[in-house]
C-alpha cells in the first residue's frame, strides 16, 4: 500500500489568516495541498482560479493537487501548469464520460509535465473507466456531492474505493486512491481500511487545529 498522505483543502482555509495558516501547513505532516476549482457552471459554486495557486506556490513547497470541477477544464490546463500545479484531476462528466476524450486529456496533462488524476460524481458508475487506470497517477473518489464544503460523508462511496483497490492489486498498478468529502477522525479510518491512501480534509483540519488534526488523521 502507498504511504498515507493528507491533502488539506484550501477551500476551507480562513483567507484572512492565509500566511499564518500556510506556515502551519508547511510545518505540519501534510504533503499535499488540495485546490477545489469550481466554475459556477459544472457545479453551482464559484471558487478561485490559477492565481490563487500561484500565491500558494510562492510560499509553500507542498505538492499542489488541483481538482477541476469545470465544464471546459482543458481551456485552463496551461494556466494551472504555469501557476505551479503538480497534478490535475479532471471529471469524467466534463467529457460526457467519453473514455477516448478522457484519454486524450490525460495525455495532454502528462505532456505538460504534470500528474493526471481522474474523478467522478457519486452518482456516476466507476466501472466504465477501468481501461484508464493504467494511464493515471490518482483516482479521486468523491464522498460528497461536488460543489460545497462541509457536507456529510457518503459511506456508500467506499464501494468505489474497494473496487479501485482490487483493480490496482489485480493489475499490479500503483495509482493513488484519494477521497474527498466529509473526512474527519472517524471517516478517515473507514476510508483507509477500504483502501484509500490520500485523504482530502477541509473543515476538519482548519476548524480543529491544523497540525493536531493532520497528525490525528495519520494515526
Architecture overview:
35% of the residues lie in helices and 20% in strands. The protein contains eight helices and eight strands; from the N terminus they run E-H-E-H-E-H-E-H-E-E-H-E-H-E-H-H. The protein has helices at residues 18-27, 50-57, 77-83, 99-111, 158-171, 185-194, 203-207, 210-218; strands at residues 5-8, 32-38, 63-69, 87-91, 115-120, 138-142, 176-180, 198-201. An eight-stranded parallel β-sheet has the order 1-8-7-6-5-4-3-2. The mean pLDDT is 95.
**Count of helical regions:** 8
The backbone outline, from C-alpha atoms, is: globular
Mean pLDDT: 95
Low-confidence stretches: none
Main sheet overview:
8 strands, parallel
Cα end-to-end separation: 16 Å
Q: Rg, please?
A: 16 Å
With strands numbered from the N-terminus, the spatial order across the biggest sheet is 1-8-7-6-5-4-3-2
Tell how many strands the DSSP assignment holds: 8
Strand % is: 15-25%
Q: Helix and strand layout, with pairings?
A:
Elements: E1 5-8, H1 18-27, E2 32-38, H2 50-57, E3 63-69, H3 77-83, E4 87-91, H4 99-111, E5 115-120, E6 138-142, H5 158-171, E7 176-180, H6 185-194, E8 198-201, H7 203-207, H8 210-218
Parallel strand pairs: 1-8, 2-3, 3-4, 4-5, 5-6, 6-7, 7-8
Helix pairs in contact: 2-3
Question: Short description, anyone?
Answer:
Helix content is 35%, strand content 20%. The chain has 8 helices and 8 strands.
List keywords for this structure.
globular; alpha/beta; 8 helices
